[in-house]
Write a structure and sequence with these properties.
It contains 13 helices and five strands. By secondary structure, it is α/β, with parallel strands linked by helices. The longest helix has 26 residues.
């Protein structure tokens, strides 16, 4: 008869182990991790600290600002989608609609222009959340000389060293080791800065991500790794492409504490950011955050997203939308509908002006083909 499976032992049920025999010279045994070190590591999870203070205690002004930033990203992306349909934006275009609370909640906790941010090709929202002018972003999307990368980067490759925003990267997962480099620079210069490196659930399976985890933990780099888990990567559901679907656990083998966060609630995101940044700024090394979020559009403008039902998308829009959630919080605080409508009207005007600026700006001069090829000074 087949032997029954061995029962799983937990800390609550584990019996005292018998004393181990001392290793002999003939059979050397590697030294075990000291018990006190194991206890320290067991306490390194930041999830409990987050659970103790689930939502950020924002003032009315702070919550209004979060709401305004999320609406700006939403309306900007909708306008970008329209311009893409008109042929004014070419190439690939990945919209951030639905995921606004992630960038706004996390980056509102950063020191703008001091801490570094790096992400993948779904990057418009992160730039807007970091205070970069919508006009130069839209001009870049349309390939104009007034764009933030002078029209040569397009949707996926935008940078602003003044804002400490380093892209915008089209190669899946490539931004993660680059983010470690930015964090290394912060540590080397002792400037107190932190790098926030975003990547998606699809990129989480890239080998370079884990090489970076190892280096970041070994050197105790000041970096927050952020997995924006929107459930589908390019078009494959997480459960079909990942053996471990709880991405915040992926750093355990490198002693990187993980956090599991609702990425559709801007106040929960900001509260989690406070916990993570306090840990990293304290010199403790990296943190891995999983932000569970959802994109309403396909992977890119060319993706019809037939791998999910309309009912599923509508369910998320109706019951989990981050902008609507923030609006309801504002109304409960006594902020009037008129005040919220005034914000919406202002944002529509800003986005319309950005589109007009982009459409009326000239294309790059032919001589721009020969600039930014090599670094001029070191």
């Amino acid at each position: 008869m087949a032997q029954s499976a061995k029962p799983r032992v937990t800390k609550a049920t584990k019996s005292p182990a018998a004393p181990k025999a001392a290793p002999t010279a003939a059979s050397p045994v590697p030294p075990a991790i000291a018990p006190e070190d194991e206890a320290t590591f067991a306490l390194r999870s930041l999830q409990q600290a987050h659970a103790n203070n689930k939502r950020f205690d924002a003032s009315d002004e702070e919550l209004l600002h979060f709401y305004e930033q999320m609406v700006l990203i939403r309306r900007f992306e909708e306008k970008a989608g329209q311009l893409y349909g008109l042929g004014l934006i070419g190439g690939f275009c990945h919209l951030y609609i639905g995921q606004e609370a992630v960038a706004v909640g996390l980056q509102s906790a950063l020191k703008e222009g001091h801490d570094s941010v790096i992400t993948g090709y779904r990057d418009h929202g992160h730039m807007l959340a970091y205070g970069i002018d919508p006009k130069v972003i839209m001009a870049e999307l349309t390939g104009r000389g007034a764009g933030i990368s002078r029209g040569k980067g397009g949707s996926m490759h935008m940078f602003s060293t003044d804002h400490k925003f380093y892209g915008g990267h089209g190669i899946v997962g490539a931004q993660v080791p680059l983010g470690a480099g930015l964090a290394f620079a912060h540590k080397y210069r002792a400037d107190g800065g932190v790098c926030m490196a975003y990547f998606g659930d699809g990129a989480a399976n890239q080998g370079q991500v884990y090489e970076t985890f190892n280096m970041a933990a070994l050197w105790q780099l000041p970096i927050v790794f952020v997995v924006e888990n929107n459930g589908y990567a390019m078009g494959t559901a997480v459960k079909r492409g990942s053996a471990e679907t709880h991405f915040h656990r992926r750093g355990t083998g490198f002693r990187i504490p993980g956090m599991d966060v609702n990425g559709m609630d801007v106040l929960e995101v900001r509260a989690a950011a406070e916990v993570a940044l306090e840990y990293v700024r304290g010199g403790n090394g990296p943190v891995l955050m999983e932000l569970n979020t959802y994109r309403y559009r396909g992977h890119s403008m060319s993706d019809p997203a037939k791998y999910r039902s309309r009912e599923e998308v509508q369910e998320m829009r109706d019951h989990h939308d981050p902008i609507e959630g923030a609006k309801q919080d504002l109304l409960r605080r006594g902020v009037t509908e008129d005040a919220i409508k005034a914000i919406d009207k202002k944002i529509r005007q800003i986005v319309a002006e950005a589109a007009d600026f982009a459409e009326s700006s000239p294309e790059p001069a032919p001589a721009e083909l020969y600039t930014d090829v090599l670094v001029g000074t070191y």
